[in-house]
Amino acid sequence: MKNGFVKNGLVVVIVLLFVGLAFSPSIFATNRRESDSVEITSKMYGTMGLREDLIKVSKQQFFELENLFDNINRKLDTITTRGQAIKIMHEAIVELNRLGLLPKGMSIKQVQRLVTGGVLNSLSTKFSDRFRMNQESNESENVNCLIIGRTNWTFIRPYPLLLFDFSRISPWLWNNSLLQRLLSITYLLRLLLPFRASTYAYFGERDRLTEYGNVTDDYFKPAGGWVWTIGSNGIQKWKGEFYGNLRYRYLKSVRPDNNNIYWESWDAVGIEDFTGITLNYLGMTAPTVKNSYLGFARQVSFNYSYPW
After folding, report:
1. Are 225 and 118 in contact, with CB atoms under 8 Å apart?
2. Which pTM does this prediction carry?
3. Mean pLDDT by 10 residues, the chain (308 residues)
């Protein structure tokens, strides 16, 4: 009887071994597929609310995305007109669609209209240039411009939904040129308001720790990469390490148990009123992570040294 139990036990073990061998290749293949994939956060600013998708792509697709923006950067050095820039942006959107990186539910044409249409037609641009709230153009900024870039330490904040931010109510609406122009006017009115909540982007930051009146840590973290624009101030581009130069957001955090120890941070704003698409690796802003984006901005300004 004992030998029978032993034999039965051996049979069960052998069967389990075969079952394990049968499933282990598929488990290994699944794990390998997971390790070979990369998650990209695709965000569309200017639609009905913030459109955001977490898209899993292969490492090959990820490398193609990096090469796409590297090629765009090289092409931008050869163009001189806004029409050429729009063509490059349209082609880039087609490639992003091929890589599966456009937000779900949006077609190529819808994204192209959002990124380079509407307020970007010449009539709207001339109208908005005439009422720029007495802004002075200089070589460190651009206004009412197409923008393409790839930088780290970059974070874009969406504005709250307003009535005239409904930039894609339906395909029929945005295929109608008359209604599109009417909506462009309401969008421009929002841009001209002196007080408003808008989409803006941080480029670089400063963090400082003060203990009992002495500064013990003071960190400067510039954005790194490149930004190219074409707008009312012609072609303006930045490359290397730089900070936003429009304004900054200041925060102060005091230690609860000791008000003589506090932490301060300054986030430098480099873009105001951005409409377009951004692509970010895991939605992170770490130094080695590049945020890729293309679209339209009301105002852009950067400085190679910390501005405040």
Report:
1. no
2. 0.73
3. 50 50 45 65 71 83 91 94 93 95 85 72 48 51 93 79 43 53 56 55 93 93 95 94 92 89 93 88 62 91 90
